[in-house]
């Protein structure tokens, strides 16, 4: 080979490399721009196109895939950078999580490229594989639903109502179908410049027509369905709920004095909420852990074996536990008395629902991140224990199996999982309890509704969720959390009432739209009078089986090569 030929080949390879990098960066940049903080949502309809172009490129090497992996890791690290603020221990976890999530982009490209072997058109392969991979990441390693493609349309009401059919997956599916049609157009325009491949051009032209017919049909159907759902009536409720939000700095290890400071801050904020309106507030909601104030709610009467091991008479254990409960209820009565002083014409105490640590001494001692419901007569009606725990934030895998790992775990990082969904009643309104990440892992609340339905219990009228997003400073993670809640409201067809510390203190209606919101980083309250929506969504009836089928097809596609080689 001559020198000139080598130079031409080197230039060609260099050009392909530049194009690959450009495509990769465009894919991640478009996706980032479509989401908060900028939220230029129309870009999501072309955000997947660069990945499809990358997948269908003539030359695709391991180096190209490695480049995609690194750029995708940077995308996820930038999008979720707020996670690192909670504790220095979370910095490596943040990087590992970003790399893990980036692997789904690489897998998507590989599987789309592999679909050519089965002659599966891109307008079928791309949406099925994308939704399948979103479903897998929503289950694998406890799951994370944040930054699904469909969340970019959270503030476009007509386009997200299909979430009541199959969850946010349905919105993502629709978006990728449009991306596939745009990609098919680009492919067709390229093929027209090569007259030698007339048969191939004809096939591409047919694919182009089918892709656009499908895309236009799906989008118009989505808009039509959305408008129909948006125009359906709801019922009014007389119940008024105050969602309290503040911006309290948080540390993993809080002193007793700091816990009491936070408690006092939320009490004063709640009193100001009652003073700000002449009408009576029926319930006040405090964020996750803000109601503990160094005094957890204690249940159980102790364990005789534990008492014997520690050399303490069982009677003393029982008496101490009873005393702790009395102290808790005494404080609750005083708090409710203060809240009643300016609460409407009758000055009646409200219900108080707050994030509160719960300790169970029925057997082996257990601790929960709880949501406690105090009635106006200062009694604990019910409490809910958080069911979906945050990996590396509230528990570390294998920590109980490998004792020496415990030495590196900060205090407070190790709580137990709750035992099932709970419904609180405030006057004529019933509330399904959620805590923190449970609105950011979509299946959790949907499964709550499904479990209640299987128990032949009536579905709750609304979802009340409390969170402490003070860990994430003023990052876009807070906005991502809110968008998860917006799509969840549509999926369950229930309003969401969220009380947060430096997070989304917001009232969202059953169509996923924000009715009222406390500006991020501010302190105050939102008065919510949620409308009752009696509709039962399809996704509550059947679960996320459509997405699971897509996940099964993605797994089948990923394992196909191994079976071929075998």
Automatic annotation (TrEMBL):
The keyword Transferase applies. It is found in: Cell membrane. The keyword Transit peptide does not apply. Pathway: Protein modification; lipoprotein biosynthesis (N-acyl transfer). Keywords: Acyltransferase, Cell membrane, Membrane, Transferase, Transmembrane, Transmembrane helix. The chain crosses the membrane at residues 16-34, 40-58, 65-83, 89-112, 124-149, 169-188, 209-228. It holds the Pfam family LNT_N. Catalyzes the phospholipid dependent N-acylation of the N-terminal cysteine of apolipoprotein, the last step in lipoprotein maturation. Residues 240-534 form the CN hydrolase domain. PANTHER family: APOLIPOPROTEIN N-ACYLTRANSFERASE. Its main location: membrane. This is Apolipoprotein N-acyltransferase. Its EC number is 2.3.1.269. It is a multi-pass membrane protein. Belongs to the CN hydrolase family. Apolipoprotein N-acyltransferase subfamily.
């Amino acid at each position: 080979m001559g020198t000139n030929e080598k130079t031409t080949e080197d230039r060609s390879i260099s050009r392909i490399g530049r194009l690959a990098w450009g495509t990769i960066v465009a894919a991640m940049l478009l996706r980032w721009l479509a989401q908060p903080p900028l939220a230029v949502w129309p870009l999501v309809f072309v955000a997947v196109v660069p990945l499809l172009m990358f997948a269908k490129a003539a030359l695709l090497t391991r180096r190209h895939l490695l480049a995609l992996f690194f750029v995708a890791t940077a995308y996820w690290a930038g999008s979720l950078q707020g996670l690192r603020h909670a504790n220095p221990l979370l910095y490596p976890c943040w990087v590992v999580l970003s790399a893990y999530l980036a692997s789904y982009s690489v897998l998507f490209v590989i599987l789309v490229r592999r679909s050519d072997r089965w002659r599966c058109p891109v307008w079928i392969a791309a949406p099925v594989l994308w939704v399948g991979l979103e479903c897998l990441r929503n289950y694998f390693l406890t799951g994370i639903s944040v930054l699904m493609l469909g969340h970019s349309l959270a503030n476009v009401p007509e386009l997200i109502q299909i979430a009541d059919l199959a969850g946010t997956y349905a919105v993502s599916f629709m978006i990728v179908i449009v991306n596939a049609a745009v990609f098919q157009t680009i492919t067709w325009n390229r093929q027209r410049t090569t007259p030698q491949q007339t048969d191939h051009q004809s096939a591409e032209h047919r694919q182009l027509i089918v892709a656009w017919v499908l895309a236009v049909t799906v989008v118009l159907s989505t808009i039509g369905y959305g408008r129909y759902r948006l125009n359906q009536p709801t019922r009014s409720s007389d119940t008024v709920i105050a969602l309290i939000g503040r911006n309290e700095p948080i540390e993993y290890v809080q002193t007793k004095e700091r816990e009491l400071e936070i408690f006092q801050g939320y009490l004063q904020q709640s009193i100001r909420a009652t003073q700000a309106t002449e009408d009576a507030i029926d319930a006040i909601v405090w964020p996750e852990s803000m109601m503990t104030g160094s005094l957890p709610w204690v249940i159980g009467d102790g364990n005789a074996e534990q008492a014997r091991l520690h050399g303490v008479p069982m009677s003393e254990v029982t008496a101490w536990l009873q005393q702790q409960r009395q102290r808790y209820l005494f404080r609750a009565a005083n708090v409710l008395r203060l809240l009643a002083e300016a609460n409407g014409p009758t000055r009646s105490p409200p219900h108080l629902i707050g994030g509160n640590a719960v300790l169970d001494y029925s057997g082996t001692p257990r601790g929960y991140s709880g949501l406690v419901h105090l009635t106006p007569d200062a009694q604990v009606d019910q409490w809910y224990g958080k069911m979906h725990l945050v990996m590396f934030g509230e528990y570390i895998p294998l920590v109980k199996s490998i004792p020496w790992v415990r030495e590196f775990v900060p205090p407070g990082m190790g709580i137990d999982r709750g035992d099932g969904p709970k419904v609180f009643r405030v006057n004529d309104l019933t509330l399904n309890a959620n805590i923190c990440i449970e609105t950011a892992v979509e299946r959790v609340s949907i499964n709550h509704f499904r479990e209640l339905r299987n128990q032949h219990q009536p579905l709750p009228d609304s979802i009340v969720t409390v969170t402490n997003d003070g860990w994430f400073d003023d990052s876009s993670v807070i906005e991502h959390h809110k968008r998860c809640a917006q799509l969840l409201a549509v999926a369950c067809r229930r309003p969401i009432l969220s009380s947060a510390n430096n997070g989304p203190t917001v009232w969202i209606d059953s169509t996923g739209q924000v009715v009222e919101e406390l500006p991020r980083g501010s302190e105050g309250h939102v008065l919510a009078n949620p409308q009752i929506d009696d509709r039962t969504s399809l996704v509550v009836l059947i679960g996320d089986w459509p997405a699971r089928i897509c996940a099964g097809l993605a797994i089948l596609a990923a394992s196909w090569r191994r079976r071929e080689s075998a």
